[in-house]
Specification:
- The protein is of the alpha+beta class and 380 residues long.
- It has twelve helices and eight strands.
């Protein structure tokens, strides 16, 4: 009998070591998600600089987050160049182990900085939206929690081992290295602040008596942020699964890398979406159009007993005589002194309406007929 087997006889084939390489997919995931985040940051800066004509600290924080995200991608590229994504038996650890670990440490630092700048940007944005005292205090408190907690996380990364070089150079004896418990605590802090940031606006938005579609849009803008929380939980599940040491560590960390870059860049994208309503109103007005039919919700929204801003006191006794050039903006909608609500971006302002006879920057003008008077309104 012939002792040889044909290639199709899998029952007699001796299993061989795998030699596939997930490195290119890791790099692609990093740079594709970063590019999408970059596009949204550009749209945000265009909106703030050219339409709203007002750049603030929140915008610059998101730019710093994008730069840190780029640092994560560059570190990932270096890791892959030195064997990350390959199976450990295909990597010369004596040559590539040190630069791979050094790049991994840098990616951990860049990841942390990207998250803290994104969360700081969102908290600063909340401070421009909320006028009610409890919401502003909560925003300041949350900002303090984000800064202090991430300061601790950054310090724990900078002191991963003492001396720091022992983190990636295994020939150096470390006098101290952070325990895994510290980094589990860091992960818990990040997830906790994620939920706090995206839960904060909900109780302030829900009481608003706005048209149904308008309220859904406003709540949806904030609620979409829970996708970041979901990504964080997925990443946590992968961390738990990878808790046990793996001999093939250069390959087994691939999935965690995917979700790391997705998390930081998705957070940037969502932080930018919150600011893009003026852009959508100018270039895609049909997308944000709200029916002008008299519905129950709209009737309620146009009554006098409606908060003027997120959580502010209602205007219960409007004056008998209304100046046609008086106006206020509601978060998610603008209303005149008669209580009529019309769509607007998420801003809160009050004062004299712009003179319709003179040009006011790049703002659009529309006229709302209220009590047989024309009320000039601008988009900020």
């Amino acid at each position: 009998m012939n002792s040889t087997t044909s290639p199709g006889d899998s029952s007699m084939v001796i299993p061989a070591l795998a030699h596939d390489d997930s490195g290119p997919r890791m790099v692609a995931a990093g740079f594709i998600t970063w590019t999408i985040a970059f596009i949204f940051v550009v749209l945000r800066f265009w909106t703030r600089a050219m339409i709203v004509r007002r750049l603030g600290a929140a915008d610059w924080c998101i730019a710093l987050s994008l730069i840190a995200g780029a640092g994560t991608c560059v570190a990932l590229l270096v890791e892959v160049r030195h064997g990350m994504g390959k199976h450990v038996w295909d990597v010369n650890l004596e040559v590539d182990g040190k630069p791979m670990l050094e790049a991994w440490w840098f990616s951990l630092l860049a990841y942390t900085l990207s998250l803290v700048f994104t969360k700081t940007s969102i908290c600063l944005l909340y401070l421009t939206i909320f006028t009610i005292e409890w919401a502003r205090k909560a925003s300041w408190s949350l900002l303090a929690i984000v800064v202090v907690s991430n300061l601790w996380i950054t310090i724990s990364i900078l002191t991963y081992c003492i001396p720091l070089q022992a983190t990636w150079d295994l020939s150096i004896k470390a006098s101290f290295c952070q325990s895994q418990d510290a980094f589990w605590a860091n992960t818990g802090i990040n997830i906790g602040t994620d939920f706090l940031i995206f839960l904060l606006p909900i109780p302030a938005v829900l009481p608003l008596r706005l048209p149904y579609r308008q309220k859904v849009l406003l709540v949806g803008v904030f609620a979409i942020g829970f996708f970041v929380c979901l990504v964080s939980l997925v990443r946590l599940a992968i961390l738990i699964k990878a808790k046990e040491p793996s001999m093939d560590f250069t390959y087994s960390g691939t999935e965690l890398t995917y979700w790391t870059v997705i998390e930081i860049h998705t957070a940037i994208i969502i932080a930018c979406i919150m600011t893009l309503k003026p852009f959508a109103k100018r270039y895609f007005p049909r997308f944000l159009s709200i029916s002008g039919n008299s519905t129950k919700d709209e009737s309620s929204a146009s009554s006098g007993d409606v908060p003027l801003t997120i959580g502010s006191r209602p205007l219960r006794n409007p004056p008998a005589e209304h100046r046609p050039d008086s106006w206020v903006e509601v978060s998610g909608g603008r209303r005149d002194v008669h209580g009529d609500t019309i769509p607007s971006d998420i801003e809160v302002q009050a004062g004299q309406a712009p003179d319709s006879k003179r040009e006011v920057g790049m703002v659009e003008k529309q006229v709302v007929v209220t009590a047989q008077q024309e009320l000039p309104v601008t988009d900020t």
